[in-house]
Amino acid sequence: MVTTLLLFMRFFYKTIIASVHNLSYNLTMHIQYFGLSSFKITSKDTTIITDPFDKKSGLTPPRGGADIVVLAEKTNPLYSQTSGITGDYFGATDAGEYDTKGVSIAGIPLKQGESWITVYLLESEDIKILNLGHIKDFNIKEEDLESLGDIDILILPVGDNTVLDPDKAAKAVNLIDPRIVIPSHYKIPGLSIPAGPLDNFLKEMGDKYETTEKLLVKKKDLSGDETKVVVLEPLR
Questions:
Q1: Contacts of 181 (CB under 8 A, 6+ apart)
Q2: DSSP letters of 36-85?
Q3: Tens of pLDDT, residues 173-186
Q4: Which of 57, 98, 180, 201 could form a disulfide with 166 if both were Cys (CB 3.0 to 4.6 A apart)?
Q5: What would the pLDDT profile of 43-84 be if each residue is shown by its tens digit?
Q6: How far is CA 73 from CA 35, 50, 83, 103, in A?
C-alpha cells in the first residue's frame, strides 16, 4: 500500500513538473523598444522596464506601469528617470541575485572607465535575456560568462561613442552566441546625444536581420544554431 502510494506521488510530481515546463515553452514573451537602452519586456504576469531615460536625451521618457524596473546605472540620471513609471514595482538597481514576481535576475557589475555599470541576466518563461545596458567595454570575465549558461536573447548597445562600437559589439555576439540579438543605443529620430547609426553594426553582422515593432517569442522557437538579428522599431 505504502509502495503504491509512493509510486503514485512520484508520478503525480513528475506530471506536474512536465506540465509546468510545457506551459512555459508555449508562453509568449513580448519585447518592445523605447530607445537608448530602454526596453519593455512583458511575460504572462510581469512587465519589466529597463533604463528609463531622461528627456534631456531628446526623446520622450518611457511611461507606463511596471512590475520590475531594472537600472544599469542608478546614479546616472540619463538612464534612471523613473518618474513616468507607475505601479508598485520592484527595483533591480545593484549587482546581486533577485527572484521576484516570477523573474530571476542576476546583476553583474562591470567597471567602465571611472564608473560601474550593472549588466543583467533576466530569466522568465524559461527564456534567458542578457541585457548589456550601455557598456563601452565588453569586459565580462570568462568564468562569469560561462556561469550564465546559454543565452537566448542578447540586448546589445551598438552605437559607438559612449557604448560599444560595431566591431566590439559583433565580437561580443560571437563570444556569447545567443539565438537572438536585439541592437540598442544607436541613432534614432529625436535623439540628441551622440550615437552612431545602426547600419554599421548590421554590416558587421552580414546585413541579415528582420525588423518589427514588437518581438513575440516563445522558448520552443529558440532552437537551432544560427544567431538572428532583430531590429525593434522604437515606440512613439
A1: 153, 154, 156, 173, 205, 227, 228, 229, 230
A2: TTEEEEE-SS-EEEE-PPPGGGSSPPP-EE-SEEE-S-TT-GGG---TTE
A3: 999 999 999 999 99
A4: 201
A5: 988 999 999 999 999 999 999 999 999 999 999 999 999 999
A6: 16, 11, 16, 20
